[in-house]
Structures are given as structure tokens and as C-alpha cells.
Design a protein that fits this description.
With about 700 residues, the chain is α+β, with helices and mostly antiparallel strands. The protein has 18 helices and 26 strands. It is elongated and about 125 Å long.
Length: about 700
């Protein structure tokens, strides 16, 4: 019994639950008032012959005194507690935390799943997260509202809806839809292999941080994704009624229980009903006689959990959140099918990397989405496969985790690995401590023409939630279409030098949305001067390293034939050519769907009364070896030039600029166009050969 709650506090709670004084209790079980007092203070324990009498008087199941379990609360004992208005007249017309995000279902999926990942218990197993959309009608809806004490909260919802404010208009829309359609949409978010809402109802702990408080994050360790304590507000923001129910299975028992710890919270603005004025939030649970009737969590039975549509599928620790009157705040998704798709998309965008596994390791996260109507599946449950949605990035991360990266791209499946330095300045509290260098991992891999998000760099840390996506700009001409992944902090590896320092530093550089690394108030308040510069330098270094990796290898050339020394490179030469020769002004190029190079070349021409006659040549600037030549499938004169019968270009006399376009012949390519840069050479030819 060493791990059980002390008998005295447990007994005191049971007496308050039954409304008995110590004297009344002593009389009921036929002991002295002093004996009960000794039990309460821990100076004595009841004799075995009194245990049965105590359980009978307190209406407890047999054995409760030994296990220290509290009895489950029947449905009839549940009630709503509405916070009274402030005596000083202050009014709050909504929870400001809910407006810290551009709310939509993708944001909800990111914030809720991030919280689940941060509470992962068994590091060798994934956190399992399941999103269930469930539309209720008819008898199912009636039963749900009956258990929820709808008659007690409808006047408060209506009073809020009648107010002319932002939150009230959303509630008014939710009430109107419920009354007109007779439908109510629930969104349940379950996680397993997570800590659950442990701790007391009011004092410090996970439960109070989520249910009672704002701007408090109970995340432990530098690797946690959240840090502001704002993410939970997205749950209530996704409800048109401001209502969320909670069912938690605890990793650490509380009051002798672990399963079905339940409570509801209603997030409303200030309002006035016939019963008085109310400050904002309300709670649904068991009346707490120690708090003037305020409600506390209760231990529910399976039937109540089932009727409230929040029964968990197993006894594994974790929490279920039921968003009542769920909707997409952005308005983009308005039915079960589109909301299902939006949730899948949001989970993929933010957590594809957390769902990547290897031959020897399990993923951090397993996520699924399903949609139902009155218990019948409408959209089948989808177990999200990161390789299906992010094939190139998943390949890159898996290659890193399995040690299969390369130093040079030679095929479309290769993954380049490099590093980007991050210099973490000293904490202000540490004085003039030296900077800590951390080497973030940079991965680059080719992607195909169907990838609409090609040439993007996604950055992440800790549990590999995507923090930001950046376009790759100013890439070398002819660089293949690629995807990039940057892993910083703990994501770079458990043994990565400076990982802890980088985690803490980047965490303070994230805004509440956790979608960027930039200067924040927390960053400048925590770190010595130069912290913002360190972030900017880190961001710049990412892109510079990508450009370096994709730049074609410089090739040494021999003297060769005299005609080849007159080549005009696609990239302007480092030293200007003689004014007597044409020079390249600008070149654009890309690889089309068939794998052919399509280029447009602008040429600067010296003044000359005679025409220039030049032969365009396409060469592949591979990353090693010579530059082999490819044939043209088509040459198209565009301005101040014409195509001769011999396939050369004749430029108009006196013209100062000209332009032409060309398409390569794929059958003549020495290697795939996506694996090489292209050089266009303009070789002077004699008129006789035209």
C-alpha cells in the first residue's frame, strides 16, 4: 500500500462527497469522534472489523478502502458550473488564445498532434493518433444531448449568440444549424502511448494546465514541440459551440483510478441570462463541495463514455478530446468528405517525417482519419502512409536514418547529405559563455515532374514536426528538381553535438504557431546579444549550402580544336569577352514532362554590317567527366535571327541582340536531363557550310 493515497485524505474526500461530518460518520459506524480524527490525521488506521461498515456507510464497493478508489459518478450526479461574472465589472468576450492562430483543420491537426507527440511514453513505440468525424442525428443525437444536460447550457449558448461579437456570431451559426438540420458533428481526437491528463484537478499538473489554465505549458525537456500553452485553444476554436469533452486514461493513477477521467469545458464570452451574469468558461462534471459547487473531473463508467461518444478503444494511456459542433473555421471544408481530406492533408504536411520508419526502428507517430454518420462509416479509415504523399522527402529521411546517403547525385534515388552550422549564443543567465556550434543535417534528393512542391526545403527539430517550408531560390541553371530536408537539434541525431542547446534556442525562436524560426521576444529576452543575427545567418546558410550542392562541378578543359575555344557558355564567363565576339545575355531553361531540355537564349551581338553565322550546340554539364553533346529536336528563331537549311542560325546584320529557343532530342541524351545541367555553346561556322 506504499504507492496508494494516504487513508486520511481519501477518507476526508469520501465524507465530503457524502456530506457527512466527522461526528456524524463516527456515530454511523459506532466509533468515537477521536477515532475518526486519528484516521484523518494518519495517527491510526481502522480495524478490520470496521472496514465493511465504513464501505457500507460511504456506499462504496467492497474493497474500496484497500484500493483507495473513489466511486464512479452516476450520470444523474453530473452538473454544469458557470463561472460568475467578475465583481469588478470586467468582461471578456472570448478567449484571446483562440485568435493566436489562423484557424483551420490543418492547424488543429498540427497543434493537437504535436501535443500528443510531446507526451509520448514508450520511446520504442509510436504515439497512435486517430481522428474520427461523427455526424449524429435522431435518437443518437437526443441521447447525447440528454447526458450532456443540454437544457442547462442552451440558455447560456443563446445568450452568447445574441451578443454582437465575434465569438457570439460563431455560436449563433452553430445553434441555427443544429436546430434547422437536426444534425451535430463531433470530431474525436484519440491518442495512445501518451501520458494522459495526470495530476490534481486544480493544482499544478497536466490536467489543470489543459482544463483550467491559459498560457501554461507543462511540456518537459528542451525537445518539446509546444512552449506557449496556446495550442489547446485550437480545440475549442474548432467547435461552433465552444464545447469540448475530455476522457483521459492516466499513465499515473489519481485517486486510485486510471481509466475514464472525464470533464467538459464550454468556452463562452461574457453573457447575461435570467439567472445572472457569467464571466466566460463553464465546466461539466461532478460538483465539488470544497469549491462552492464548482465541478471537478469524474470517473465515468463505460456506458456513460459510450453515450457521450468518447469511449476509448483500449486501456493504453492517453487522452480523447471530443469537439462538439465541429467545423472548419476557414470555411474551406464543409462536409464529412472534405473535412476528412483536410485532416489527412494537415497531418501529412506537418508530420510526414514523424511517421517515417526504417527496417530497424518504429515511427514516432501513427495517424489515421475516419468519418462516420450515425455509427456507419462514410469515409473509410485511412492509415496515413508518408511515402504515398511525400515520396522524395520520405526517401531522403529514411536514407539518413539508415546511413545510406551519398556525396554526389548519380541517380534519381540518391540522397545528398551535408551540414549547416548553427552558432547558439550564450544564455543571458550564463554571462559571457562561449557560443555552442551545432551542425544541422541537410538532405537533398531529386524529385519527379509530378511533384507540385518541388524545390522546397522543409525544416524541423525534436519530434520531426515540420516547422517551416522555404522555397529554394536562385538555384544554378539546369539544376535538377529536388526536395530538401533540414534536421536540427534532436532531429539531427541523439549524439549530434550541441543538440540540446540548438533545441532550446530554436524553440525560443518559434512564434506561437511554431511555423518559423525568427526573432521573437522570448529569443531576445533569453539569449545574449546576437541571437537574432544567429537565426538570420542560419537561414541564409541553409540556402547557400543547397546552391553549392547543386552547382555543377567545375571541369578542366584541354586546348582542343580552335573552334571549341569560341564557345559561348550558358553562364556568363568570369571575365568579359572581347567586344568583337557575341556574348550570352540571358538564358532560361527547364526539363519538360518528356525529359527534354527546353531553353531560351538571348545573345548580345557586337555591331557588324555582315550577319553572324553560329551553330548552337547543347552539352550536358555532368557532375563528373567530360561534357557530352546532345542533338536538337527543334530550333526556333525568335528575334533577329533565322534558321538555315544546315541547321545553323544566321543573325541579322546590324542587330545588337537576338533570341532563339531550342528543344533537345531525348534519344540523344547521354544521361537523364534531370541529372545534369545544360550548357549551350554557339560555335562560329563558315558561310560555305551553311
Amino acid at each position: 500500500m506504499g504507492d496508494l493515497e494516504e487513508f486520511g485524505p481519501w477518507l476526508g474526500r469520501q465524507l465530503r462527497r457524502r456530506g457527512l461530518s466527522q461526528s456524524e460518520f463516527a456515530e454511523e459506524i459506532q466509533v468515537t469522534r477521536a477515532a475518526v480524527s486519528a484516521w484523518m490525521t494518519g495517527r491510526a488506521q481502522p480495524r478490520m472489523d470496521k472496514i465493511q461498515a465504513i464501505e457500507e456507510v460511504l456506499e462504496l464497493p467492497a474493497g474500496s478502502l484497500v484500493t483507495r478508489q473513489d466511486p464512479g459518478t452516476p450520470v444523474e450526479g453530473l452538473t454544469w458550473y458557470h463561472r460568475p461574472a467578475y465583481k469588478d465589472g470586467g468582461r471578456e468576450f472570448g478567449n484571446a488564445a483562440a485568435f493566436a492562430f489562423d484557424a483551420d483543420l490543418s492547424v488543429l491537426a498540427r497543434e493537437a498532434t504535436q501535443n500528443s507527440l510531446d507526451e509520448r511514453l514508450d520511446e520504442g513505440e509510436p504515439v497512435r493518433v486517430r481522428y474520427t468525424l461523427h455526424e449524429l442525428t435522431g435518437e443518437r443525437l437526443h441521447s447525447f444531448l440528454e447526458v450532456l444536460r443540454w437544457g442547462d447550457i442552451e440558455p447560456h449558448l443563446q445568450a452568447s449568440a445574441d451578443a454582437d461579437n465575434k465569438v457570439g456570431r460563431v455560436i449563433a451559426d452553430g445553434l441555427e444549424d443544429l436546430r434547422n438540420t437536426g444534425r451535430l458533428l463531433l470530431l474525436r481526437i484519440d491518442d495512445y502511448n501518451a501520458s494522459g491528463l495526470t495530476g490534481p484537478d486544480y493544482d499544478d499538473g497536466r490536467f489543470a494546465a489543459v482544463v483550467r489554465r491559459q498560457l501554461e505549458s507543462r511540456k518537459e525537456g528542451a525537445g518539446a514541440g509546444g512552449s506557449y500553452g496556446l495550442g489547446k485553444a485550437t480545440l475549442w476554436a474548432a467547435s461552433r459551440l465552444g464545447l469540448v469533452l475530455i476522457n483521459s486514461t492516466l499513465s499515473t493513477p489519481y485517486q486510485g483510478h486510471s481509466e475514464r477521467r472525464m470533464i467538459g469545458r464550454l468556452e463562452l464570452p461574457w453573457r447575461q441570462t435570467v439567472d445572472g451574469q457569467w464571466a466566460g468558461p463553464s465546466w461539466f462534471g461532478e460538483p465539488d463541495p470544497e469549491r462552492d459547487g464548482a465541478t471537478r473531473s469524474w470517473w465515468a463508467d463505460e456506458q456513460t463514455a459510450e453515450r457521450l461518444h468518447i469511449r476509448r478503444d483500449s486501456g493504453a494511456p492517453g487522452t480523447s478530446f471530443l469537439i462538439v459542433g465541429a467545423h472548419d473555421p476557414s470555411g474551406e471544408a464543409d462536409d464529412l468528405e472534405s473535412m476528412h481530406a483536410a485532416l489527412v492533408k494537415g497531418l501529412v504536411q506537418s508530420f510526414w517525417a514523424s511517421m517515417v520508419s526504417t527496417a530497424d526502428t518504429r515511427p514516432m507517430l501513427a495517424a489515421s482519419v475516419v468519418a462516420k454518420r450515425d455509427g456507419n462509416v462514410v469515409v473509410e479509415e485511412e492509415q496515413i502512409d508518408p511515402y504515398q504523399y511525400e515520396p522524395a522527402r520520405t526517401r531522403a529521411l529514411r536514407a539518413f536514418l539508415e546511413g545510406a546517403t551519398v556525396e554526389r547525385l548519380t541517380s534519381t534515388d540518391d540522397v545528398l547529405l551535408s551540414h549547416v552550422p548553427l552558432h547558439v549564443p550564450a544564455l543571458k543567465s550564463k554571462g559571457k559563455a562561449p557560443k555552442i556550434e551545432h551542425r544541422a543535417v541537410l538532405l537533398v534528393t531529386p524529385t519527379d515532374e509530378q511533384d507540385m512542391d518541388a524545390n522546397q526545403l522543409v525544416c524541423m527539430r525534436s519530434n520531426r514536426m515540420v516547422v517551416m517550408a522555404r522555397p529554394m531560390t536562385d538555384l544554378p541553371l539546369g539544376a535538377p528538381r529536388v526536395q530538401g530536408v533540414l534536421l536540427a537539434g534532436h532531429a539531427a541525431g541523439a549524439d549530434s553535438p550541441g543538440a540540446d542547446a540548438a533545441e532550446h534556442f530554436l524553440r525560443t525562436a518559434e512564434p506561437p504557431e511554431h511555423n518559423d524560426w525568427k526573432r521573437t521576444d522570448d529569443l531576445t529576452a533569453t539569449y545574449a546579444r546576437g541571437a537574432a543575427t544567429a537565426i538570420r545567418t542560419f537561414r541564409t546558410a541553409m540556402m547557400e549550402e543547397i546552391r553549392r550542392l547543386l552547382r555543377p562541378t567545375e571541369q578542366k578543359s584541354d586546348d582542343g580544336p580552335a573552334s571549341l575555344r569560341e564557345l559561348l557558355s550558358l553562364e556568363p564567363p568570369s571575365a568579359p569577352r572581347s567586344p568583337g565576339f557575341p556574348t550570352v545575355k540571358h538564358v532560361d531553361g527547364s526539363v519538360d514532362a518528356s525529359g527534354a531540355w527546353r531553353v531560351r537564349v538571348e545573345v548580345r551581338l557586337p555591331r557588324r554590317d555582315d550577319p553572324w553565322l553560329l551553330s548552337p550546340t547543347l552539352r550536358f554539364a555532368t557532375r563528373s567527366g567530360p561534357k557530352p553533346m546532345a542533338e536538337w529536336a527543334e530550333l526556333i528563331p525568335e528575334s533577329n535571327c533565322e534558321l538555315t537549311e544546315a541547321g545553323n542560325l544566321r543573325f541579322a546584320p546590324g542587330a545588337r541582340t537576338a533570341a532563339f529557343r531550342g528543344v533537345s532530342d531525348v534519344s540523344s541524351h547521354p544521361v537523364s536531363a534531370r541529372m545534369a545541367a545544360a550548357d549551350v555553346d554557339l560555335r562560329r561556322v563558315k558561310e560555305a557550310s551553311a
